[in-house]
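Supplementary notes for students who missed Thursday's class. We covered one full example, reproduced here. Read the sequence, then the structure, then the short commentary at the end.
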Amino acid sequence: MSASRHSGEGGNPEEPISSSPLRCEVIQELADLYVDGELPEETIARVSKHLLGCPDCSFQIRSVEQARGHLRDTCGKHESNPGFRERLSARLHAEFADHVTPETVDLPGQLALPDFRS
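Structure (token representation):
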């Protein structure tokens, strides 16, 4: 169902997502994150509530879930060749060497993250 057909949903687009019922446009933007389970619990609950009353958004979410399921079944999970990963890593390091500062902290068990220059 389009957003205009959901009376009382939405309101001012400048309002934070938690201050009003979710509109269809917002559900469409959150669909991938919702299917991936990457939204905060409160937002998942609000999306789920919207889906109970909106067949169009429910259909969209089911379609995304089914498409991803078909891709998983068809493609499976494949690891890249170690040689490819090494070549890619070397190329990325060479390409972005001017943007990354060398690692200076070497603590046991801690992964060092690069510092990006502005």
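Commentary. The chain has four helices and no strands. The chain has a mean pLDDT of 78. If anything here is unclear, bring it to office hours.
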